[in-house]
Amino acid sequence: MSAPAVPTRSIMLLSIAAFASAANIRVPDALLPQVSADFAVSVGTASVIVTGYTLAYGLLQAFYGPVGDRYGKYLVAAITTLLSAVFTLACAFAPNLEFLATARFLAAAVSCAVIPLSIAWVGDVVPYEQRQNMLSKFISGQILGMIFGQIAGGILGDIIGWRMVFVVLAGIYVLAGLALFAEMRRVPLTRIASNPTASLNPIDIARQYAALLRRPWVRTVLVVVCLEGLLFFAAFVFAGNELHHRFGLSFTMVGLALTAFGAGGMSYALFAQQLVRRLGERGLAIGGSAVLCLALPLFALAGGLVFAVLAVFLCGLGFYMLHGTLQTNGTQMAPEARGSGVALFASSLFIGQSIGVAVAAVIVDRWGAVPVFLACGPFLLAIGLFFASALRRRP
User: Fold this and answer.
1) CA 92/CA 122 separation, integer angstroms
2) What architecture does CATH give domain 8-392?
């Protein structure tokens, strides 16, 4: 018998939805100075639109894992994509920072389902020997979404203002959501639920996650990815503001400079197969964290724009070297409950990110961003070394 055909088109449409979801995460990077000026608050105060978003994005991942298993991961991803459009559009009409933060929180509460459920669905339908290749194609959409989010926050923010940026982003969500529903009518595989009898009783869900958390390897992966999100984004979310104030860049130029992060991530995606073959998982964890240990202090101390942009590029390369290794382990740490496992993984990442940005905001408002960049690099190297050591002892 021949192997079942890989649903490439269905995966690429999920990648478009992931594009919108990733763009929504990164849009505020270049918009923070505009939002803070419009509402007459400090950048640290305005960063609530980042922390609130990432908090909801992280906390509610765990809810969607069992829901996707029961009703179908593709269906839930399609529904939440369209709901994301509604709340993202609401951001454009925010009369004050409190309304904007609330709308961002609600947008994250639904958008957070898209990427982890997509990854879990790929794991369900693609044979293991082809999965790495398909996941790299899917993740390319996510990286391009980050690039677009940073460009949109800069260039479009300069041209049409930060409010219209959210209108454009809502439009992308609508197109992606409609495409996913159309695909479900054509491809029966997208309508299949992996576990139609799965209980959505909160007690049963809690027991399922508790059982996963009792596994030492699951706990190790989750703690490391939480610390990765905490340390990296505590610094990087303020990179746009640093570029604007330190080098006098317009918002357009800030957005363009931040695309170097996506370029670094795409460099990893293009050469991931060769890097895995030459370095292995442990080598990628150590190498990625070492690159971050170099890149963040380089950005903090860069006296010229060229070195700052180079540091942003290295941030993208190093982050995806480390995170790609963690994500691979995240998809396989509980194969029999992949939806729930990936949801826990994503929750840990974004909870860590929200904590890191909230703590860093206090430091940035009082002492500036440089101390944050200088401190986070060495700590990231430490967790990379720890994870590489843990991989050696992995069961």
Assistant:
1) 33
2) Up-down Bundle (1.20)
